[in-house]
């Protein structure tokens, strides 16, 4: 084939809506020498049969950003690329059957408005006026989103493809990629049935085949893609005269309806209905040996399975009785890939250089536009406009075996519209990674949560406490856990607490040149040998990439400790920044960590150890504890006198028992969250994210602009310092009602939204609800009165002094 491209800047594998959107957005950013490969015809995967709904609703800021951008793009795309298509902005109504659902809607509405989406809360009567065929007697209320709608997925994909081609990109159809080879210089050869293409970057956008394509990257550091495939059905009814009449009279479509508590969408399709249930008794496919994934499933569907969705269809007919007047014309039953949390994977491929991914989309039509933008930013700029950790492929690590993916995919699908309450832990596929003292933690009443696959106690129940999942169905602070968290915090404040923290990510960075390379990476200074510093890494814009504890063991030997969930994210950062002479070794799994903290922690540890417990804050030492080798670091995320005790897994049970026997009280992650927020300690990917610069985050004391090394972000931070920051990090004392402020609650000043919370919790030592957040710089003065919108309730909030609310001078830490 003479015009077959043999060279490209980027090769995208997969011609669904997402691959085409990525190709278009790369071209819009000026990269117009890219190639997209499609094994069949464009849209042959999941895209061709999608229902085409394009919501903006989400309780995730990042997902809402991506979906909002899609709607904005789709509104102008036909003109932008000169390709007419059917995009109906009909608006949508989301029905609430409970007070908790109303609170969820209030939160989404407030976030939506902050993003410029004019959502509204409606009474059932208002909904009935707009949707006369609706039964409303049992509804609490309705969320109306005027920007919701539906699009023809095939036309959308073709429009993106046309736009890309017009800007110089190449699309090769009926050309399966068959393998990849990475060259020594990091560039790639993508092998296809029609020949090889050499490229700088490669993208896996292969939809439900992404796992198969992902296997090719294993020799270059890749992993099995965490995904599975669900069967999703929607049914199309025959035409309904009343709908036709309504449409004629009102000049448009009925709003899209989602009865989220029953779990379906219902929208007008021509003059009939399209009903799509997410049934609890759902069906995964290609999960067992007797149901293998076919070599090719292009443009295919499964047979109908109406029994599975019968209950929901019946319910929908009661909600909109008009539905019952028409017959079922057609059923579409097609594959949707699911990641374990139902969100796509967009961004750098973990462990593999110059490779990216954008696949496993459950709502790829709604998210495709935004996903293309995000992926193009990753590839061209190395960072994204909005923090996209929610969809970053590195959020999963090695615990996502196929059993995990299958169980989680089924759980997410069956609870597609479920509310995600703050004290609720989803039960499927648990216990993938266990601490060496897991059994003991459970015996003590530990109510477990999963953190990067590791089981940690969230709180410790006492006999008689209600530990049911139902008890967690609240947005509020109150629940069986509240009394226990308070007791745990008080034990840490007055005596000594112990928290088992498996999966604390640890990297040994050693070898000639390690210190200099780290100085060129972090924004601040390195600790002296024997000491520990908190260090930050910025991106080129001076925004916060990550935070680590840097423990200096010797001149050229460091232990970098970071959040459990940051394991692969931070590993990739360290690996890419170190020269060949420096080794980066992930030693996360060989050791477990205890946090032993509280005013009596010194006495307790000294009684068990040969260590020096008079050594100062931010020092470390090797010592025995209960006769076992341990590594002790004098820090406390809880903000009290305390030590982290790191020890080999096999030694930890003895140490844990000894610490407990000496009187330490077990405490959990909920208490730790409360304790850290009282100290103003930031949490990664809440308070610390690429949505904020280090200067905005109030982290200037961790930046050394006068050091000679040109660390990432240095120039940007310098420029921002001269210019002045637009927003500032603040601690707020909130007159909260039943709930503390969740992430991304809007902060108001009068009628204006002036910022957002990044986390919130009750502080039991200070006896107040606390929120950390970002506000307009001129409103960051201590004493400024603001309001925080917590699930629709406007709560008075006062900016606190720029010091921790608990122990502002760190006297207890240094004791
Ligand atoms: C019944 C149903 C209804 C849905 N309704 C909606 C909805 O209303 N709204 C919504 O947002 N989403 C909906 N979805 C989901 C949506 O269809 C998907 O999320 C979306 O189509 C995914 O797009 P994609 O580009 O990631 O994957 P795909 O469309 O699957 O594209 C991947 C492409 O990669 C190609 N490919 C694979 N391997 C290779 C290879 N080796 N070489 C070259 N090419 C390769 C495939 O042929 C395929 O064309 C629905 C899905 C189903 C099943």
**Approximate helicity band:** 25-40%
Let me know the number of strands: 38
Task: Report strand %.
Answer: 25-35%
Quaternary structure annotation: single chain
**What's the shape?**
globular
The class by helix and strand makeup works out as: alpha+beta
Structure description:
The chain has 815 residues and is α+β, with helices and mostly antiparallel strands. Helices cover 25% and strands 27% of the residues. It is built from 19 helices and 38 strands. The strands form seven sheets. Strands 4, 5, 6, 12, 13, 14, 15, 16 and 17 form a nine-stranded mixed β-sheet that branches. A hairpin with a 2-residue loop joins strand 29 (620-625) and strand 30. It starts with 6 loop residues before the first strand and ends with a helix. The model has no long low-confidence stretch (mean pLDDT 97). The structure holds flavin-adenine dinucleotide. The site of flavin-adenine dinucleotide has 42 residues, from helix 1, strand 12, strand 17 and helix 9.
Strands, helices and their partners?
Layout: E1 7-13, H1 17-28, E2 35-37, H2 61-81, E3 87-88, E4 92-96, H3 99-114, E5 120-122, H4 124-130, E6 141-145, E7 150-151, H5 153-166, E8 170-172, E9 177-182, E10 188-192, E11 195-204, H6 210-215, E12 228-237, H7 241-250, E13 256-259, E14 264-269, E15 272-277, E16 284-285, H8 310-319, E17 328-338, E18 345-348, E19 355-359, H9 364-381, H10 402-414, H11 438-443, E20 446-451, E21 454-460, H12 480-494, E22 497-500, E23 505-510, H13 514-519, E24 532-538, E25 544-554, E26 557-562, H14 567-577, E27 583-586, E28 591-597, H15 601-606, E29 620-625, E30 628-633, E31 642-648, H16 652-661, E32 665-666, H17 669-678, H18 714-723, E33 727-734, E34 746-749, E35 752-763, E36 768-776, E37 785-790, E38 793-799, H19 811-814
Parallel strand pairs: 1-2, 1-11, 2-8, 4-13, 11-19, 22-32
Antiparallel strand pairs: 3-7, 4-6, 5-6, 9-10, 10-11, 12-15, 12-16, 12-17, 13-14, 14-15, 18-19, 20-21, 22-28, 23-26, 23-27, 24-25, 25-26, 28-31, 29-30, 30-31, 33-36, 33-38, 34-35, 34-37, 35-36, 37-38
The structure holds flavin-adenine dinucleotide.
């Amino acid at each position: 084939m003479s015009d077959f491209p043999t060279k490209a800047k980027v090769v995208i594998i997969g011609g669904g809506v997402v691959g085409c959107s990525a190709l278009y957005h790369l071209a819009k950013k000026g990269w117009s020498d890219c190639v997209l490969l499609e094994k069949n015809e464009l849209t042959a995967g999941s895209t061709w049969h999608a229902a085409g709904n394009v919501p903006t609703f989400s309780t995730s800021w990042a997902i809402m950003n991506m979906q909002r951008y899609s709607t904005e793009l789709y509104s102008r795309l036909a003109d932008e690329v000169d390709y007419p298509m059917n995009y109906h902005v009909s608006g949508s109504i989301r029905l609430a059957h409970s007070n908790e659902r109303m609170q969820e809607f209030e939160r989404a509405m407030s976030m939506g408005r902050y993003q410029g989406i004019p959502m509204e809360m409606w009474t059932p009567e208002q909904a009935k006026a707009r949707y006369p065929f609706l039964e409303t007697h049992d509804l609490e209320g309705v969320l109306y989103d005027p920007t919701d709608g539906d699009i023809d997925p095939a036309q959308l994909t073709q429009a993106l493809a046309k736009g890309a081609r017009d800007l110089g990109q190449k699309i090769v159809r009926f050309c399966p990629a068959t393998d990849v080879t990475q060259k020594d210089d990091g560039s790639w050869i993508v092998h296809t049935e029609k020949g090889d293409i050499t490229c700088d970057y490669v993208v896996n956008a292969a939809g439900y085949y992404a796992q198969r394509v992902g296997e090719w990257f294993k020799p270059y550091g890749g992993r099995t893609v965490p995904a599975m495939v669900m069967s999703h059905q929607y049914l199309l009814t025959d035409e309904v005269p009343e709908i036709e009449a309504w449409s004629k009279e009102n000049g448009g479509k009925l709003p899209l309806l989602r009865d989220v508590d029953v779990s379906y969408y219902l929208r007008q399709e021509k003059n009939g209905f399209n009903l799509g249930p997410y049934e609890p008794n759902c069906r995964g496919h290609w999960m067992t040996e007797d149901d293998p994934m076919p070599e090719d499933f292009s443009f295919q569907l499964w047979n109908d399975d109406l029994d599975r969705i019968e209950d929901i269809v019946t319910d929908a007919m009661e909600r909109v009785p008009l539905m019952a007047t028409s017959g079922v014309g057609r059923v579409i039953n097609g594959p949707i890939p699911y990641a374990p949390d139902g969100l796509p994977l967009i961004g750098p491929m973990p462990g593999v250089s110059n490779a990216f991914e954008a696949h496993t989309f459950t709502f790829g039509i709604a998210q495709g536009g935004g996903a293309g933008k995000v992926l193009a930013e990753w590839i061209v700029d190395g960072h994204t406009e909005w923090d996209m950790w929610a969809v970053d492929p590195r959020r999963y690590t090695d615990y996502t075996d196929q059993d995990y993916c299958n169980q989680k995919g089924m759980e997410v699908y069956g609870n597609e519209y479920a509310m995600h309450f703050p004290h609720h832990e989803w039960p499927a596929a648990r216990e993938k990674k266990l601490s060496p003292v897991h059994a003991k933690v459970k015996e003590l009443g530990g109510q477990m949560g999963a953190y990067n696959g590791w089981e940690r106690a969230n709180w410790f129940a006492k006999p008689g406490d209600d530990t049911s999942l139902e008890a967690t169905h609240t947005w509020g602070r109150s629940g069986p856990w509240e009394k226990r968290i308070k007791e745990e915090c008080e034990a840490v404040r007055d005596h000594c607490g112990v928290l088992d923290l498996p999966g604390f990510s640890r990297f040994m960075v050693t070898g000639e040149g390690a210190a200099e390379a780290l100085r060129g990476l972090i924004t601040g200074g390195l600790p002296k040998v024997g000491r520990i510093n908190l260090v930050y890494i910025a991106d080129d814009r001076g925004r916060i990439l990550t935070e680590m504890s840097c423990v200096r063991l010797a001149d050229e030997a460091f232990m970098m400790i970071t959040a459990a969930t940051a394991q692969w994210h931070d590993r990739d950062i360290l690996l890419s920044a170190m020269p060949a002479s420096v080794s980066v070794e992930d030693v996360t799994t060989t050791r477990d960590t205890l946090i032993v903290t509280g005013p009596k922690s010194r006495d307790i540890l000294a009684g068990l150890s040969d260590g020096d417990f008079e050594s100062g804050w931010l020092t470390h030492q090797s010592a025995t504890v209960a006769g076992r080798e341990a590594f002790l670091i004098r820090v406390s995320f809880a903000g009290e006198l305390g030590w982290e005790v790191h020890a080999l897994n096999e030694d930890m049970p003895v140490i844990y028992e000894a610490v407990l026997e000496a009187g330490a009280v077990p405490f959990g992650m909920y208490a730790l969250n409360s304790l850290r927020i009282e100290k103003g300690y930031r949490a990664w990917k809440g308070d610390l994210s690429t949505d904020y610069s280090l200067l905005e985050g109030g982290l200037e004391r961790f930046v050394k602009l006068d050091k000679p090394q040109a660390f990432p972000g240095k120039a940007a931070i310098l420029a921002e310092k001269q210019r002045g920051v637009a927003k500032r990090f603040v601690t707020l004392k909130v007159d909260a009602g039943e709930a503390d402020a969740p992430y991304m609650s809007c902060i108001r000043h009068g009628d204006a939204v002036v910022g957002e919370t990044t986390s919130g919790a009750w502080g039991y030592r200070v006896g107040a609800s606390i929120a950390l957040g970002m506000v307009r710089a001129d409103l960051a003065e201590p004493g400024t009165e603001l309001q925080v919108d917590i699930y629709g309730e406007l709560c008075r909030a006062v900016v606190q002094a720029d010091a921790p609310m608990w122990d502002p001078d760190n006297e207890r830490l240094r004791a």
